[in-house]
Design brief:
Blueprint lengths: L8 H7 L1 H9 L3 H14 L8 E5 L5 H9 L4 E6 L2 H11 L4 E3 L11 E7 L10 H11 E9 L6 E2 L10 E2 L2 H8 L3 E9 L11 E8 L2
Parallel strand pairs: 1-2, 1-4, 2-3, 4-5
Antiparallel strand pairs: 5-9, 6-7, 8-9
């Protein structure tokens, strides 16, 4: 079978062995508990959303938590890594998984919430406007961005790899790009939280007002 060609080296990085190793580091019961606590807060102003799609869903740890909070919610997920996409299918149903690059995803339907968590930081910065547009197009009402925050763009070494982790004001850039987006809530979760740690994530819930 012909090897998949990706637009950016970051995609190849996550589609391959490093992405496989990531699966094993992020599926503990403690992580699921932290995610439950996280989404109770981050989605509080969204009420009870009827549908949600996650960009870069991995094995579905975020979606497991969301499904526990909202049992009747319709879920979709986009995942580039083959092993992760297979496990994701067991969480939300294989028919609800788009296995491929976010860049290749075309929104056939709108979900009440478009979610991205810990993914924009790994996207090639030149391609961010493309992802912003895809998040916007997939959202019927809300966009939830959960990433490392920095007021100015910076590049950080990631587990010995360069040009694989970038910090900036992702939500601020989206608010500037789309005038009909309004910030409705935001918060921060600290990695040293004694009960429900996350990886220093700042989250922003934005709503379409047009």
């Amino acid at each position: 079978m012909e090897e998949k060609k990706y637009i950016t080296p970051q995609e190849e990085f996550w589609a391959g062995e490093f992405g496989n190793d990531y699966i094993n580091r992020n599926q503990s019961a403690e992580y699921l508990a932290s995610n439950l606590n996280f989404f109770v807060k981050a989605l509080n102003q969204a009420g009870r959303p009827k549908s949600l799609i996650e960009f870069g869903a991995n094995i579905g740890m975020n979606l497991k938590a969301i499904k526990a909070l909202f049992p009747d919610i319709q879920l979709g997920g986009i995942e580039i890594n083959a092993e992760a996409a297979k496990e994701l299918g067991s969480v939300i149903g294989g028919e609800n998984v788009f296995h491929g690059s976010i860049f290749d995803y075309e929104s056939a339907e709108k979900f009440e919430v478009a979610l991205i968590k810990g993914v924009l930081i790994h996207i090639n910065p030149d391609m961010l406007p493309v992802i912003y547009q895809k998040l916007y197009d997939a959202s019927g009402r809300y966009i939830l961005v959960c990433e490392y925050y920095n007021p100015a763009p910076v590049t950080i070494n990631y587990r010995g790899h360069s040009d694989r982790l970038f910090k900036r004001d992702f939500a601020g850039e989206m608010l500037e790009k789309f005038p009909d987006l309004k910030l409705v809530d935001y918060g921060f979760v600290y990695k040293r939280d004694p009960a429900f740690p996350q990886d220093d994530i700042t989250w922003f819930l934005m709503q379409k007002i047009g």
